[in-house]
């Protein structure tokens, strides 16, 4: 597990190669295996492979959308805000589990934040809801951009770890 965690870096450039059906199924299983508060499972995922739709998603946020330019696969991670008051936490767990399975499969990904972000005209969540026809009650946490890596990033090692962030018994 630590090896996967050290190797996972945000990959923002992808090759044109599509993600296979088998790999996509594993990635989605990882998301569906996420724990959720009180087992309510408020999180849903929308798989987007249509390049035109992905480029519309790129316009849903002013900055930080570079990974969407080349990603052949995007998974929108959304949560039913009426079903759970902590859908954000649940959707965060789903997002990172997707990223870890992606890394395990030898692919790359980046979390593109939508919640609390803006496009040129409106709130990013609202913009994504419009592009993907998502009902109003769903919050949009992230768009996970996924594909084969087209850039190299150095894995983390123990010297990158901030052990000063750890406190024992009191702050
Ligand atoms: C909550 C969250 C939001 C993020 N939003 C974006 C984003 O909108 N665009 C982007 O390119 N990267 C985004 N990232 C990736 C971070 O920039 C990246 O994880 C961080 O710089 C550390 O680099 P690493 O992922 O390679 O370890 C986000 C990551 C997290 C956890």
Question: How are the SSEs placed, and which strands pair?
Answer:
Elements: H1 2-7, H2 21-32, E1 43-48, H3 51-58, H4 66-70, E2 73-80, H5 87-104, E3 108-113, H6 124-132, E4 138-147
Antiparallel strand pairs: 1-2, 2-4, 3-4
The chain binds flavin mononucleotide (FMN).
Describe this structure in words.
The chain has 171 residues and is of the alpha+beta class. The protein contains six helices and four strands, in the order ααβααβαβαβ. It has helices at 2-7, 21-32, 51-58, 66-70, 87-104, 124-132, and strands at residues 43-48, 73-80, 108-113, 138-147. The chain has a four-stranded antiparallel sheet, with helices on both faces. The two termini are 28 Å apart. The structure holds flavin mononucleotide. Flavin mononucleotide (FMN) is lined by residues 9-10, 12, 64, 66-67, 110-113. Residues 9-10, 12, 64, 66-67, 110-113 line the site of flavin mononucleotide.
